[in-house]
Amino acid sequence: MRARAPGKLVLSGAYAVLEGAPAIVTAVDRYVIADASREADFVTPEVRCAIGSASAPWFDASELRRDGRKIGLGSSAAIVVASLAARALRERPELDDAGLADRVFAVALRAHREAQGGGSGIDVITSGYGATRVCWLDAGGAVRSRAQVLPAGLRIDVYATDREASTRDMLARVRAYARSDHEAYAARIARLTDAARRAASGGTVESFVGALRDQVSELASMGDAAGAPIVPEELRDEVEGVAVIPSGAGGGDVVLCAGEAAACDACQSALEGRGMVRLDIALGVRGVHAVP
C-alpha cells in the first residue's frame, strides 16, 4: 500500500511555540510518497526510531527538495508520517484520512522528537492532519491544534534560496543562549508570544502582517544574541505592505512574503533580485492519505 503526506510551512510562532505560544502552520502540496510493498533503500533516523529493526517502506521525498537540497518544508516529519501510514494501510486498507492520521500520529511524534532531540511536533501534526492549523503545546508538552482560517485577502508567496539551513543547529544555539542569559531570552519570548497570539487571533491582513513584522524584528535580535542566523541580513529591510519572514527555524532557505496581492506583486522583483526563486506552492492542503 502507498501513502503520501504533505510538507509544511510555519507561518507564525517560530521558537515561541516551544514556550507555549500558538504557531500557525500550513500543509503544502509538496508530498512524500511511501510504498510498503517496496523496501527502503535509505531509512531516516525518525523512521528507525518509529519501527525499530522492522523493514521500512521505500519513500520518495524529492518534491521537498530543490537542486538536491532540502528546502525547509518539513521533510523529516512527512517521511515518518508517510512511512507509518503506508505500513498501517497494509494492515487496514479501509482507513480514511482521519483514521489514518489518528493511527500514526502518536508514534510519528514520539519518533520524531526522539530522533531530533526534542521539538514541538507542529510539523508532524500538520503532515498528519493537513489544512492550515493553529498549534500549541499544552502544560504537559503534548501538541494540540485546531483548524485556522487566514484573513480574507491575505496572500502568502513562498520563495526558496540557495541557502541550506539546519533546524537542529539553530535550535541548539537558541537553547544555549536561553541557558546563558535566561532573563533576556524570556523577555524576547514574551514579545514573540504576544505577536504570535495577535497573528493567531484572526483579524485583518494589516494586523496579521504587522504581527509577522514584529516577529521578524524580534527573531533577528534573538538570532544575533544567540549567534544563530535566524533572519539573514537581506531579509531585514522592511518592505511596505508586506511581511518578509523566514519560515520555521529560519536561516533563509525558505522565505515567505505575506500581504495583499498588489503588495506581494510589488515585492516579487525585490526578492528575486536578492537571489530568491518563487515556488508554485498551494497552502492548506489535505493531510496524510492513501494513494493508488
Which SSEs are present, and which pair or pack?
Elements: E1 2-12, E2 23-39, H1 45-51, E3 57-60, E4 65-66, E5 69-70, H2 75-91, H3 97-116, H4 122-129, E6 132-137, E7 143-147, E8 155-160, H5 167-180, H6 182-200, H7 205-226, E9 242-246, E10 254-259, H8 261-273, E11 277-279, E12 289-291
Antiparallel strand pairs: 1-2, 1-12, 2-3, 2-6, 4-5, 6-7, 8-10, 8-11, 9-10
Helix pairs in contact: 1-2, 1-3, 2-3, 2-4, 3-4, 5-6, 5-7, 6-7
Features of this protein?
alpha+beta; single chain; four-stranded antiparallel β-sheet; Ribosomal Protein S5, domain 2; 292 residues; 8 helices; six-stranded antiparallel β-sheet; Alpha-Beta Plaits
Describe this structure as you would to a colleague.
This protein is globular. Helix 1 (45-51) packs parallel to helix 2, helix 2 (75-91) crosses helix 3 and helix 5 packs across helix 7. The strands form 3 sheets. Strands 1, 2, 3, 6, 7 and 12 form a 6-stranded antiparallel sheet that branches. Helix content is 41%, strand content 24%. By secondary structure, it is an alpha+beta fold. It has 2 domains: 2-149 and 282-291, Ribosomal Protein S5, domain 2 (2-Layer Sandwich); 155-279, Alpha-Beta Plaits.
